[in-house]
Design brief:
It is built from 15 helices and 16 strands. The chain is an alpha/beta fold. The structure holds one RNA strand.
Length: about 375
RNA sequence: GUGGCCAUGGUGAAGCGGUUAACACUUACGACUGUGACUCGUACAUACGAGGGUUCAAUCCCCUCUGGCCACC
């Protein structure tokens, strides 16, 4: 139960719900997509751009900011919001995902994780206590427990022990956390095993947090497996707390998750793919560097109302990308984020009107027909 | 006119007698899910200026031609 979160409406046709999450920097409407800004910047976007695409809350990363420029410096300069000139809510990831993504550069023990900096190779020891302290220094509105995120290839026994460790770490995180007004979310692990997920859920919910996140998804498993876990966990998640699925996803994944009743999401897909020339449109994904767009004077997405689609042609975006221009990253990222955030806005609207199931059906049909729309 | 050097794919360029012609760029097409990411993957020379010769075998040696560069007259 969270005092900050209110479910405003439940769609009569499915698990989807409309909510409001109150934070120190204002309320956010859910379901919501949170752009990822690892290094205290959503790559290629100014905070002004973020406001223009209606970003309500963004992510930053504990591990990265701890290494550079250092959380103490950020605290000294007035906290993360002031440091990066973003006055809306911020959620910081704990560094748990780096336990997964840094692979060989880290070593896990009961006490914590020894990392080798990907920047200069220096050694660092991140513990649940330190992860919380760093996040308190940064001053995010929502912080995450330090967890272990095992890969999809991990066997049952490993996942079981990993989940138990994550529970013990969650307890330590909660005991350490004291910053007033700042919310602490717990993370559920358990891989693709429903019994382990149920157990993790039970343990994490028993400890009690301001919100609950599903971790360990999109780590190499099949899509069906991921959807299966989403479906299996949804009815077990606390009804009155925000439910967050970490690290997802594609537009299809988001629609699926919202349908099951999840509220918050984050993913590097719109930003990273934008920088690699892959753009999301109402007609499917398009690879802007492809030959067919060479002389295409039309807008990227004729149905999109964003600044990029209203002012620039596909031919120009293709040229910018191929020329390696900085503006390519900027315009592409702007559009992709607008697309994701607008998709969530439309989802909220559909939920409010009890037609989210229909919205989902239409979306799936449209996107399986135009999975890789090539032309205009 | 004489002497010397050089000619390898769209580009720059390795190889210098022996089965698949290195590498980079360009180009084409993919991928990307709590960012180690303007990144990564795959494909792309029936062919080494042209013709002839030596050799079991020639991009690699020899001759001629063609073209380019440099020096001298």
């Amino acid at each position: 139960m969270s005092d900050n979160f209110t479910v405003l409406h439940r769609d009569a046709s499915c698990g989807a719900r409309l909510g409001s999450l109150k934070t120190l920097h204002g309320s956010i409407e859910t379901p919501i997509f949170m752009p990822v800004g690892t290094n205290a910047t959503v790559k290629a976007m100014t905070p002004e751009d973020l406001l223009a695409v209606n970003a309500q809350i963004i992510l930053a990363n504990t591990y990265h900011l701890y290494l550079r420029p250092g959380h103490c410096l950020i605290e000294k300069l007035g906290g993360l919001h002031r440091f990066m000139n973003w006055q809306r809510p911020i959620l910081t990831d704990s560094g748990g995902f780096q336990v997964f993504s840094l692979g060989e550069l880290r070593k896990i023990s009961e006490e914590g994780v020894k990392f080798q900096s990907h920047i200069d190779g220096s050694s660092h020891f991140l513990t649940p206590e330190l992860a919380v302290q760093i996040q308190q220094s940064l001053g995010a509105d929502i912080i995450m427990c330090f967890d272990e995120c095992p890969p999809a290839t991990a066997d049952y026994d490993y996942v079981k022990r990993s989940l138990e460790l994550t529970t013990r770490w969650a307890r330590r995180c909660k005991e350490t956390h004291q910053r007033e007004g700042q919310q602490l979310f717990g993370i559920i692990q358990g891989g693709m095993h429903y019994d382990l997920r149920a157990r993790s859920l039970d343990e994490i919910c028993t400890i009690g947090f301001d919100g609950y996140a599903l971790g360990g998804l999109s780590v190499g498993e099949e899509k069906e497996q991921m959807y299966g876990v989403m479906e299996a966990c949804a009815p077990l998640m606390p009804q009155d707390s925000p439910r967050y699925i970490m690290g997802i996803g594609s537009p299809e994944d988001l629609i699926e998750a919202v349908w099951h009743g999840y509220d918050m999401f984050d993913c590097v897909m719109p930003t990273r793919n934008a920088r690699n020339g892959m753009l999301f449109t109402s007609q499917g994904r398009i690879n802007i560097k492809a030959k067919p767009y060479e002389e295409d004077a039309g807008p990227l997405d004729p149905e999109c109302g964003c600044h990029v689609c209203r002012n620039y042609s596909r031919a120009y975006l293709r040229h910018l990308y191929r020329a390696g221009e900085i503006l390519a990253s900027q315009l592409n990222t702007y559009h992709n984020l607008y697309y994701f955030l607008d998709l969530m806005r439309r989802a909220r609207e559909a939920i409010r009107e009890n037609r989210f199931t229909e919205f989902r059906r239409a979306f799936v049909v449209n996107h399986t027909c135009n999975q890789t729309a090539k032309g205009g």
